[in-house]
Design brief:
With 184 residues, the chain is mainly alpha-helical. The chain has a domain at 44-65 and 78-144. The chain is 47% helix and 8% strand. It has six helices and two strands; from the N terminus they run H-H-H-E-E-H-H-H. The chain has a two-stranded antiparallel ribbon.
Length: 184
């Protein structure tokens, strides 16, 4: 049993040493995301920054809902699309389960508890947490900054519209309505 544990540790070290020359952003600051998860994501996806947005990155991994349209029931949200690499989703699943059991990632725990308290099934909450974790990974790569659980993103603050109202932003001049325009 001891030699098996030694082999696991040696393999982890070899993977980590092979990732050293890549000069990656500070992904190790994301709680519960380990070397195997990051190696799997980088091997399957490449650089997350190439996707252009966190939503596109999560969508590529197959973590976004797939729309359903049938007869009179249109625009229903179905299951996740599962269009990306399945073993990357498996690694993210294990990261989320680990975060929930070790309580090291407050954002994942908060999202999970909020969704379960709203009556969502536990597996739906876990998939939502996987989606959020993928977006966190994208954010760390894009910003090249360490993970910050207090970061609120672009929800509000200086330079952001309050409640979606552009008129509340300082320095924004909205065009006036043109009034009645008649064709001649």
């Amino acid at each position: 049993m001891k030699s098996l544990q030694q082999q696991i540790e040696e393999t982890d070290k070899a993977i980590e040493n092979s990732m050293q020359p890549l000069e990656l952003p500070p992904w190790k600051t994301i709680p519960n995301v380990g070397i195997l998860t990051m190696a799997t994501l980088l091997g399957d996806v490449g650089d997350p920054r190439l996707f252009g947005s966190a939503k596109k990155f999560a969508s590529f991994l197959g973590l976004t809902p797939r729309g359903k349209q049938s007869g009179s029931s249109i625009n229903r949200k179905g299951h996740i699309s599962k269009c990306g690499p399945s073993h990357a989703r498996q690694k993210l699943y294990m990261c989320v389960v680990s975060a929930l059991s070790t309580k090291k990632n407050p954002l994942i725990i908060e999202i999970y508890n909020r969704l379960v308290s709203k009556g969502k099934p536990k597996n739906v909450a876990i998939v939502a947490c996987m989606n959020h974790l993928a977006r966190i990974i994208y954010g760390v790569f894009k910003s090249n900054q360490p993970f910050n659980p207090e970061y609120q993103g672009m929800k509000s603050g200086p330079g952001r519209p309050q409640n979606g109202n552009l008129a509340t932003m300082p320095g924004v001049i909205l065009p006036r309505p043109l009034g009645n325009i008649t064709a001649t």
